[in-house]
Q: What sequence folds into this?
């Protein structure tokens, strides 16, 4: 096996996540006159670059990623993604972060190459998990391994529903669709969530993280990209799943991968927790134990591919890509994206025919390195690269106007999140090409324009994500504790109007607004307790009844009357009160049952509602019938009653007519003419009999129809008595009838109702039975 000996000091700084390894490496780099650090994510590279350039000045720092190159005239320090590290440039210090990714099937061969060949002149530092320690000892025997323990504890918290997540939680999912779905749920339950995906531009990601860091949102929903060193103040990491698609298949996460992500919780000496969310029953105990103890199986192999490729011919290139590794602990990487792209291009006859010289094969391999940021079909990506390859062969460069047209086509900030994200992904392709200065005419202009478009799209995407997943009002409701009810019933929590409270009835500002409901419940507890007590103590007349049986108090619906065992015994159905607990509702029900009893008694006073009561049987029977008839019944034979019984009825205010018997106190409450009054008696009758027979309801209330008029029954009996007296003399003239003045407007209708017909100026008895007595 080939020996890989460093020229300077080599250190492997290994330990759990969130232990300050990256910070220590950056500090060491800045202590050297020149340095370079390779980081696993462009987002992390941008974060480190921003920090160093703010401290040392942009003229001292270069940023090199697959899509972006910010290289001043004479940079001292280089911040790069691992794949983009210019390892042929000598620097005093060199570091590679997350070196255990050499065991990753998709990217591992690049990290292995850096482990074997990338060195600083004076110092080299590899950062990563302890799982790679045995392989570092074997492949880089001169390396000094330094364990870097975690300063805080990482503890399993168990499964938590989304609404019960601790503050400053990160909810982890493994696809964009899952992230968006969980973010929407977090918006509903917590008022808002920041969103972080690896596909976001640095500008968008930074804006979303800034919201979380500033406490503007209590929750972040992210992919496992957060596991690679993004530094945030996270208290808890919740997993929505323990399976992910790794580019080839859906597989379970290893314990080490769970720890890499969960380790974002806690910072420095501050402890953190991890657990499952509502979509996952729990994390298996063996994984929990491994994560809490930071004890994972060591890596047994690393992925490898030759870095010195032979481009003398297509066949030589293919052969060098398949060259066997120099160590048994290295495994040949197959199926890499660039190798697959190479085969797709060589399958095109026109491309294969032109790759006929070493320089053209070398160019073809360079073109294969263009990533498929757009995530299109492989054939579509290959067609784009074929066009680029032919243009470079034919003209030596890509036309500036052509690239600018492609970028200009994407310069639109309308549309939803998916459209904006798609445009950003397309722009990344042209940004990547723009930084290949040898390929592009007027590269600086292309770079500047592509960056401006990416910034506009990034800002638009941040606004779209915020508009969709952040409810500023909801967050105020989630955090506010001060509640106030204004004079018009408006409820404000934390200065935000959340609904209205009339009596005991809560009406949210928006239908189904659960956040407002929770805020109102939390803030209005004392107010509601006071209102329930006032309702319980309220006099009978403070509760009103509507014609449809709805009971109200202080302007708000409280309950509804529903049919009961009899007309005098309606039941009560309490209106749903979202802010009140079961105990309060039970108190309301008891008060309403008492109110029904008292209100019915008052509505039928002075009729005795119970049979007997010390009254003569005949009197008690009529009173019982009048009570069930709500104050008026068809006439009964006066001969049934003795003189004493008639005197008892008179004392009770009960009158016996030819056509009706009635309670004078009940019937006499209404005007002589006009429609029957709408009071509790009308509500009781409709509950017992329905709303169909209007005449029967009117009689129960003491009225009869006389032509186009409604006349009180006592007035009808008065007219009937006058007509009977006058009819003994023959024909009846209206002028001769001694009737009250208030009856005069309806006199003719009354005479007709009593069965009389007009003959000139007089009335004669007709043959039909009087309608009023029917």
A:
């Amino acid at each position: 096996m080939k020996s890989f000996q460093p020229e300077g000091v080599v250190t492997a700084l290994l330990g759990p996540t969130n232990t300050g390894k990256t910070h220590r490496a950056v500090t060491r780099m800045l202590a050297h006159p020149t340095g370079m650090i390779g980081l696993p994510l462009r987002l992390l590279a941008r974060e480190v670059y921003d920090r160093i350039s703010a401290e040392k000045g942009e003229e001292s720092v270069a940023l090199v990623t697959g899509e972006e190159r910010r290289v001043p005239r004479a940079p001292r320090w280089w911040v790069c993604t691992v794949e983009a590290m210019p390892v042929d440039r000598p620097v005093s210090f060199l570091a590679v972060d997350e070196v255990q990714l050499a065991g990753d099937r998709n990217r591992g061969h690049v990290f292995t190459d850096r482990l074997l060949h990338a060195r600083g002149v004076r110092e080299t530092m590899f950062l990563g998990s302890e799982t790679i320690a045995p392989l570092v000892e074997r492949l880089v025997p001169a390396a000094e391994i330094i364990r870097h323990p975690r300063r805080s504890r990482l503890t399993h918290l168990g499964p938590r529903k989304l609404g019960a997540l601790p503050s400053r939680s990160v909810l982890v999912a493994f696809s964009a669709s899952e992230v968006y779905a969980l973010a929407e749920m977090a918006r509903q339950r917590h008022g808002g969530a920041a969103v972080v995906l690896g596909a976001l531009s640095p500008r968008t990601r930074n804006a979303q993280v800034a919201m979380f860091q500033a406490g503007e949102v209590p929750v972040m929903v992210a992919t496992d990209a957060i596991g690679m060193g993004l530094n945030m103040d996270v208290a808890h990491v919740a997993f929505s799943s323990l399976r992910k698609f790794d580019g080839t298949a859906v597989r379970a996460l290893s314990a080490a991968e769970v720890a890499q992500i969960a380790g974002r919780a806690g910072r420095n000496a501050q402890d953190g927790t991890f657990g499952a969310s509502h979509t996952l029953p729990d994390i298996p105990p063996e994984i929990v134990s491994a994560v809490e103890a930071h004890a994972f199986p060591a890596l047994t192999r690393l992925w490898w591919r030759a870095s010195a490729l032979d481009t003398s011919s297509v066949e030589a290139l293919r052969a060098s890509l398949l060259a066997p590794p120099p160590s048994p602990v290295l495994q040949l990487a197959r199926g890499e994206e660039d190798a697959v792209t190479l085969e797709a291009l060589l399958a095109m006859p026109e491309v294969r025919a032109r790759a006929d010289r070493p320089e053209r094969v070398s160019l073809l391999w360079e073109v294969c390195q263009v990533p498929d940021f757009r995530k299109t079909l492989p054939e579509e990506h290959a067609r784009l690269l074929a066009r680029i390859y032919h243009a470079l062969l034919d003209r030596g460069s890509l036309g500036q106007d052509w690239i600018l047209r492609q970028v200009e086509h994407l310069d639109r900030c309308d549309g939803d999140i998916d459209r904006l994200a798609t445009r950003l992904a397309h722009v990344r392709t042209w940004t990547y090409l723009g930084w290949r200065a040898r390929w592009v005419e007027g590269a600086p202009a292309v770079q500047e324009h592509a960056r401006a478009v990416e910034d506009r799209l990034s800002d638009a995407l941040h606004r779209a994500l915020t508009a969709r997943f952040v409810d500023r009002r909801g967050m105020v409701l989630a955090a506010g504790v001060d509640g106030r009810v204004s004079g018009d019933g408006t409820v404000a929590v934390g200065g935000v109007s959340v609904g209205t409270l009339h009596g005991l009835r809560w009406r949210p500002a928006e239908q189904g607004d659960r956040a407002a409901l929770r805020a109102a419940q939390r803030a209005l507890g004392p107010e509601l307790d006071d209102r329930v007590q006032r309702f319980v103590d309220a006099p009978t007349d403070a509760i009103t009844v509507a014609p449809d049986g709805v009971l109200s108090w202080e302007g708000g619906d409280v309950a509804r009357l529903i049919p009961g065992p009899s007309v005098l015994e309606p039941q009560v159905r309490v209106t749903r009160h979202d802010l009140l607990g079961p105990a309060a509702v039970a108190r309301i029900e008891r008060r309403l049952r008492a109110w029904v009893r008292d209100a019915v008694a008052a509505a039928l006073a002075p009729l005795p509602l119970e049979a007997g009561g010390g009254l003569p049987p005949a009197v008690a029977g009529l009173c019982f019938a009048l009570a069930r008839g709500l104050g008026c019944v068809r006439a009964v034979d006066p001969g049934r009653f003795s003189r004493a019984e008639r005197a008892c009825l008179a004392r009770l205010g009960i009158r016996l007519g030819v056509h009706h018997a009635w309670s004078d106190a009940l019937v006499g409450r209404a005007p002589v003419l006009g429609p029957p009054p709408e009071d509790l008696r009308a509500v009781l009758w409709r509950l017992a009999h329905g709303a169909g027979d209007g005449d029967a309801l009117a009689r129960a209330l003491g009225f009869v129809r006389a032509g186009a008029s409604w006349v009180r029954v006592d007035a009808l009996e008065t007219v009937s008595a006058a007509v009977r007296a006058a009819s003994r003399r023959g024909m009846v003239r209206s002028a001769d009838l001694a009737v009250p003045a208030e009856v005069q407007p309806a006199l003719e209708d009354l005479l007709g109702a009593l069965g009389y017909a007009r003959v000139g100026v007089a009335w004669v008895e007709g043959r039909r039975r009087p309608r009023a007595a029917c």
Observations:
- Residues 96 and 253 are 24 Å apart (CA to CA).
